[in-house]
Amino acid sequence: xxxxxxxxxxxxxxxxxxxxxxxxxxxxxxxxxxxxxxxxxxxxxxxxxxxxxxxxxxxxxxxxxxxxxxxxxxxxxxxxxxxxxxxxxxxxxxxxxxxxxxxxxxxxxxxxxxxxxxxxxxxxxxxxxxxxxxxxxxxxxxxxxxxxxxxxxxxxxxxxxxxxxxxxxxxxxxxxxxxxxxxxxxxxxxxxxxxxxxxxxxxxxxxxxxxxxxxxxxxxxxxxxxxxxxxxxxxxxxxxxxxxxxxxxxxxxxxxxxxxxxxxxxxxxxxxxxxxxxxxxxxxxxxxxxxxxxxxxxxxxxxxxxxxxxxxxxxxxxxxxxxxxxxxxxxxxxxxxxxxxxxxxxxxxxxxxxxxxxxxxxxxxxxxxxxxxxxxxxxxxxxxxxxxxxxxxxxxxxxxxxxxxxxxxxxxxxxxxxxxxxxxxxxxxxxxxxxxxxxxxxxxxxxxxxxxxxxxxxxxxxxxxxxxxxxxxxxxxxxxxxxxxxxxxxxxxxxxxxxxxxxxxxxxxxxxxxxxxxxxxxxxxxxxxxxxxxxxxxxxxxxxxxxxxxxxxxxxxxxxxxxxxx
Length: 566
Hints:
single chain, 566 residues, alpha/beta, Ubiquitin-like (UB roll), Threonyl-tRNA Synthetase, Chain A, domain 2, 3 domains, 16 helices, disordered N terminus
């Protein structure tokens, strides 16, 4: 029986065919050896509503020019998938870079960070950027896309890639590749323009559909389709405060001589890792102290509201802020929103009919506001305690009365939502948004998504302290992100202050902790694709050990070894 199967496989090989299993329709097909994913996608009866942009081959993301030489499992992806969207955006960025290089040969383009539901880009021309510049760039991009120019991927020795980028004056890529330790490197070409991306590109510029580029403050905003409604561009949401936080940290990076990961790696390899850790921690402590001083200067403020997405470090931030508030002569008192859940049977349901504990209306808003008003009015209240076993609130004699020196600290996903505390006067509230807004980039054209920073933190924390594997955490991440999109991000600009919890050195430290956890994700599960992608990008960082990180560091919330009590 076994020999018959082997002979059958040998006969298939002799015929020049292989077998692929298409996850999109659950069927197997015999196809010619060496067929590209693009050719295959056009031959199979796929029913995706949008054009195929990339694919997962044996649970690893690949571009459509990838060729098949062995039996494979394949899932074709369109722009609604995060991998498909990343492929689309990378390719669009290459088109932007080519247009800028042709129009402004002496200009310098930096694609810095996601903001306002697009991607903020700085274009340094030696003068102020004008509206006419944005219009000229848009027109040239349209021409490049209309020409349907192919993207080519070239693999070579890293020394050869370094030589090519050095000749092009792209020192950011030279530094990154020199410090990567890789023997071989892949770069990309678009006509006579050369660039480097750490992920897949589309087969050609003609695959780029909906997009726009507009002047945005002192730079450019690259606009992309909405993943849920790819026929529509994302709405531009003004995020001046978010942009200011990014600029503040980029300014500090430049003072330290850190424009990208290549700069960081070179400093570490020269023995300056401890200096980078100390400076990063000092900058954060200085920022927290300034926030505390601002709160103390507002004599009416009695309630500090702290919000931010998952793994942003809100808990450690609130504890360190409390310490700084004490140095200002105030007595911080934490209030837990978890104790104000409605009884379980009254919890709203999500679209699948399950209890939606992330909903604002899973909280007893009436009781919460009545007790806050009473406390701020000088009255004594008995605080509830939610019993998660019974699903009901209980009262256990936890009595609280506050005085003029007491300030309430409330940390939670809904803290910046105006519907949480509608009955509390605005001048009595101070609102803080906390997130890991990664400011260092791989190079000038490859930023590091802030969500990747947070996901790596969560993977390490879940593994060390919650008994979850990387596969578990990755599998739940889309659901977590959906909750953030609904309940956190729309209210972030309501903050009086934004605090960036990301540190210059942290991804280099996270690498050593994350690698063994990510390597444990089996190749035969869907979560492997994300684990592989995270491993691929984090390995560009020279690893840094965590022994020099102080016990009060925000990063200790995820790595362990904190002197703060959680």
